[in-house]
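**Polypeptide and fold**
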Amino acid sequence: MIIVDEAFCKGCRICTEFCPTDVLVDSETINKKGYYPPVVAKQGECHGCRLCELLCPEFAIFIVNE
């Protein structure tokens, strides 16, 4: 399961650009800081590679194994 903390996100788009399965996409709404945080478009297709979590410079993405 992918958890995105919108309060920390600064909209760098690293996670959406480097996700190998395109699970994350840009949101159409802005967060309180004025950025477009990523949203999980295809939760079931996440392979759990944790690349988004590792590359996020703001530590806004967490992977939780169910």
About this structure: Helices lie at 14-18, 51-55.
